[in-house]
Amino acid sequence: MNDETIQQEADERRGYFRIDDRVKLSYRSISEEELPELIGRLKTGAGSNFTVMSSFTSMSQQMVVQLRRIEGSSPDVAACIKILDRKLNILGRAFLVQEDAVSNQPSKAVNISAGGISFNSAEFYEEGTALELKLLLLPDMTGMMVYGEVIACSEVEDAEETDEPYSLQISFPNIREPDRDLLIRHILKRQGEWLRKRRKENEATNSETE
Fold first, then answer.
1. Taking Cα atoms as reference points, which of 170, 159, 154 lies closest to residue 23?
2. How far is CA 182 from each of CA 43, 58, 92, 194, 198, rounded to the nearest angstrom?
3. Which of 144, 121, 149 is CA-nearest to residue 134?
4. In this structure, how many other beta carbons lie within 10 angstroms of the beta carbon of residue 163?
5. Vertex 193, ends 202 and 14: CA angle to 5°?
6. Residue 118 neighbours by CB distance under 10 Å
7. Hey, is 22 helix, strand or coil?
8. Of 25, 55, 7, which is closest to residue 131 (Cα–Cα)?
9. What's residue 7's pLDDT?
10. d(CA 195, CA 181)
11. CA distances from 144 to 65, 135, 153, 183 (A)
12. Alpha-carbon distance 94 to 103, whole Å?
């Protein structure tokens, strides 16, 4: 097994770590007849304005190594590339603002991995239902569209006392690889933030007891 294969398998294991997070999202059920065409449009880049930012972010990640090389030999050129990248990010956020159904929503508690997501829902969905989800990752405002499949839907505790009485579990069998990579990076970043916060809290507690 070569180093590249080992690294790929390690990335996949990390990508399926689940974290509790808050995102903005909207979702709708779609028919089995619609699904192939919608997936095809998404894979060819014809999804919607909502996916522009995720495409820009993915491209930025792909050029990180090359940009470092350019910085070593041509710092002025590298600086111009970074400015252009920031301008594209501003443009991508402008597209996101047009998606009122998502950008104006309050953030929602979810449990998410690169392989799926779960959250509380106001509606019940049968197992196997295909869903179109628009996810807005925070705080970077990266939007992605994912076609998922309901793998479980059950009542939550105290269902009568909430507007969202169902726990919805969704897998991502059709997620694009660039979007999966973005989710992996997002999850690792959030994990790092959580670990740093815990470390600071422990240091503060230890200093108080000394």
1. 170
2. 15, 7, 15, 18, 24
3. 144
4. 7
5. 115
6. 18
7. strand
8. 25
9. 44
10. 21
11. 24, 5, 23, 10
12. 11
Question: 177 with 195: CB under 8 angstroms?
Answer: no
Q: Which residue has the tokens 């910085």?
A: 71
188 phi and psi angles, rounded to 5 deg: -65, -40
In 3D space, the residue among 149, 153, 159, 162 whose CA is nearest the CA of residue 119 turns out to be: 153
Asked whether 108 and 118 are in contact (CB, 8 A), the reply is no
Strands 130-137 vs 19-30: parallel, antiparallel or unpaired: antiparallel
- Report the candidate in 153, 149, 152 with the shortest Cα–Cα distance to residue 172: 149
Query: Residue 12 above 70 pLDDT?
Result: no
Q: Give me the residue spans of the domains in the chain.
A: 19-202
Rounded to 5 degrees, φ, ψ at 164 are -125, 80
pLDDT of residue 67: 73
Cα separation, 81 vs 64, in Å, equals 11
pLDDT band, residue 5 (cuts 50/70/90): very low
Q: How many residues does the chain have?
A: 210
| Strand pairing class (166-171; 19-30) | unpaired
Tokens of 130: 């295909």
Q: How much is the pTM? A: 0.72
- Assess whether the previous peptide bond of 165 is cis (omega < 30° from 0): no
Strands (E), 31-94: none
Locate tokens 């894979």: which residue? 43
